[in-house]
Amino acid sequence: MRFRLTPRETSFYDMFAASADNIVTGSKLLMELLGADPSARAEIAERMRAAEHAGDDATHAIFHQLNSSFITPFDREDIYTLAGSLDDIMDFMEEAVDLVVLYQIDQLPKGVEQQIEVLHRAAELTAEAMPNLRTMDNLTEYWIEVNRLENQADQIHRKLLAHLFNGKYDAIEVLKLKQIVDVLEEAADAFEHVANTVETIAVKES
């Protein structure tokens, strides 16, 4: 760890932790969507929208703090990238839920539950990792595991696409379902971007 002679703004750590905790809330709403009756999905989408707005507020708070802080705990560019990637995760999860409601999907294809389980696990790991930015301890296993989960998400996504294009769905339904599974895959990619940014920060601070 580099020795510093000047004090650093430490509120970023709490704000990153709050943003990651909000993502766990979003992943739980995704899981709730899976078992919900179609008539209950609109209400879940409303709660997800509220969580996404909370995520936006957390991101704006980080950017405001960044713009008003002379000394930051690590590179400004990395703070900006980390905050933006966390925000992307919530955006993608909210979009997936919204599409399910807007497209009036009766039944999601088998395999989507695996996508969501991966996202939920990645959310838990991310929330556990954010407080460790204070000390940069115990982060290696985090980014290794999130990268493994992203690879798993890739495999699930490919299998889902193969299933959608097997001829059992009509063309319009394929387009709707493909957009949903693609957005969930983008959420998995965003988790990897967060993990990669954390790794970059840890390497710079070591």
From TrEMBL:
Endpoints of the signal sequence: none
SUPFAM superfamilies in UniProt: PhoU-like
A Pfam match: PhoU_div
Gene3D superfamilies referenced in this protein's UniProt entry, alphabetically: Phosphate transport system protein phou homolog 2, domain 2
InterPro entries linked: PhoU-like_sf, Put_Phosphate_transp_reg, UPF0111_domain
Family classification: Belongs to the UPF0111 family.
Protein name: DUF47 family protein
Source organism of the structure: Streptomyces evansiae
